[in-house]
Amino acid sequence: MIALFETIDMALNLYTWIIIASAVFSWLYAFNVINSSNRFVASLGEFLYKVTEPVLRPIRNILPQLSGIDISPVILLFIIFFIRRFMWTTLLPMVL
């Protein structure tokens, strides 16, 4: 059972880094720091968008508009942090 918890924790940790990469990529893209016509950059941006958008969209629908500031990745990171802590401190002791 511990192996299952560790696998879920590793997947959540990987998704955390993907969310951070997506946020940084969107900032770099918005300020024209990276070349948007580069094929690799475009495919990387499309991948990050397709991986994170299905989870971020419902959060964006719930949150009020904050004049162009998107805090949905921060909210999602808090949710992931809560799930990870809950899994290790509450669920695992109940299973063992």
UniProtKB/TrEMBL annotation:
InterPro entries: CCB3/YggT (IPR003425)
Record bears the keyword Transmembrane: yes
Membrane-spanning parts: 12-30, 62-83
Keywords in alphabetical order: Membrane, Transmembrane, Transmembrane helix
Top-rank lineage group of the source organism: Bacteria
Pfam families: CCB3_YggT
UniProt keyword Membrane present: yes
Protein name (record): YggT family protein
